[in-house]
Design brief:
By secondary structure, this protein is α+β, with helices and mostly antiparallel strands. It contains nine helices and 19 strands. The strands form four sheets. Strands 6, 10, 11, 14, 15, 16, 17, 18 and 19 form a nine-stranded mixed beta sheet that branches. Strands 3-2-1-4-5 form a five-stranded antiparallel beta sheet, with no helix packed on it. The protein has a three-stranded antiparallel beta sheet with strand order 7-9-8, with no helix packed on it. Helix 4 packs across helix 6. The protein is elongated, with a radius of gyration of 25 Å.
Length: 396
């Protein structure tokens, strides 16, 4: 029950003589207090009454930096800002006539890309690495503008930008192309920044980066040639690409597969260059060997309609002009399974329901996956993904 207007309740974080510094949901306030109130105590003051202790702090000296209370207290500001970011996201999609949907978190056919490691969920099912397959089935069923905010799960991902359980935002537009998704992305990031910071600016590695207006675009071929000194067509044999990367003075680190050779150069040379840019950037026209579920680009079958959004060097989102051909999609899935087998990775079932939906007719469409936790990191200026999570995976 609320104590009414003008009431104060929270936790004492410091004593200053006859005053207590009380941390409330609205912020820290100084309140006159008696001698029985100590740091760490839960306290309340009702209108016209003195500050009183509701519960004494019993865990030793306060603050204790390694306790759960202290961790959550440090995250409080970012978690409140995260709530504002989510409200801004839903407001933008409502204004653009999107329908919010929910799809299962447990599936019988997870994504097949070799870099994704699905987490088993029992009974022959896995936790989703992305809701992409199910959302495309909705598009085939007649939905035209849909979005979803959901938990996703990926094994072998843990670091200052990665968590094995994270929050994904995905949205799709039927009868639309990548330019529409580009426009959505620019508007979304600017709207979240305004909601959190009061201005269309984010912070990465201590640098302020404006996110309003149109973001520059850079093709993968341009990025690799300019920053890595490597010419990439997208369909060349791995031996040709490896020779070009080695000639540029880049250590392959034992890489033998096409994607690993490519990323040896991209991570070492291109990503640092993107991190140094003072604007967000869309990296477009990805090699067909990294197509995933993107369609080939008309006029240049060596690349596909795909972009990744980078802000301050942080990969924020991955978008496709979606492949709608069921025959080519099945062939790609089979190639993915062969690649997984060659690397000793677990084999997953093909998603026959998705392939059936493509056969029935998936309209021309485009979609994107955006990491909510990373967006909140940028909006709040947090340095580590744990700072914007209520509980990290090892705190559950």
């Amino acid at each position: 029950m609320s104590a009414g207007p003008g009431a104060i309740h929270g936790r004492v974080i410091a004593r200053m003589g006859a005053l207590a510094l009380v941390r409330t949901e609205a912020g820290d306030v100084k309140v006159p207090c008696g001698g029985d109130v100590e740091p760490g105590d839960l306290v309340e003051r009702r209108p016209g009454e003195p500050l009183r202790r509701v519960r004494a702090y019993l865990s030793g000296d306060y603050p204790t930096p390694d306790t759960e209370l202290a961790r959550l207290d440090r995250r409080r500001k970012h978690l409140v800002e995260r709530s504002r970011a989510l409200a801004a996201i839903r407001g933008l999609f409502a204004a653009r006539d999107f329908v919010e949907v929910e799809t299962p978190l447990r599936v019988r056919a997870p994504a097949l890309e070799v870099q994704l490691h699905a987490v088993p969920a029992g009974d022959g099912e896995w936790l989703i690495t992305s809701p992409e397959y199910q959302m495309k089935r909705l598009l085939a069923g007649g939905f035209e503008r849909i979005y979803q905010v959901c938990k996703c799960f990926r094994g072998h991902e843990d670091g200052h930008q990665h968590a094995p359980e994270f929050t994904m935002l995905e949205w799709y537009r039927a009868w639309a192309g990548l330019d529409d998704i580009l426009d959505d992305t620019e508007a979304l990031v600017a709207e979240v920044a305004r909601a959190v910071r009061g201005e269309p600016v984010v912070v990465a590695q201590g640098r302020r980066i404006p996110v309003d207006g149109a973001w520059p675009r850079l093709t993968v071929a341009e990025a690799m040639a300019t920053h890595a000194g490597v010419t990439v067509r997208g369909d060349e044999p791995v031996e040709e690409l490896a020779a070009a990367v080695t000639a540029a003075g880049i250590d392959l680190g034992g890489a033998v597969h096409w994607d690993d050779v490519f990323f040896a150069a991209f991570v070492e040379r291109v990503e640092p260059a993107l991190a140094a840019m003072d604007r967000p950037v869309f990296v477009t026209d990805w090699p067909v060997r990294l197509a995933a579920l993107a369609r080939r680009k008309p006029g240049n079958p060596a690349v596909v309609e795909r972009f990744e959004a980078y802000v301050g060097g942080l990969e924020l989102a991955n978008a496709f002009g979606e492949l709608t051909d069921p025959v080519e999609q099945r062939a790609r899935f089979e190639d993915d399974l062969a690649a997984r087998a060659a690397r000793g990775l677990p084999a997953y079932p093909l998603d026959e329901r998705l392939l059936a939906a493509l056969t029935e007719g998936l309209p021309p469409c485009a979609g994107i996956a955006l990491g909510i936790d990373r967006l909140v990191m940028l909006a709040t200026g947090a340095d580590h993904i744990r700072d914007v999570l209520t509980f990290a995976h090892d705190e559950r």
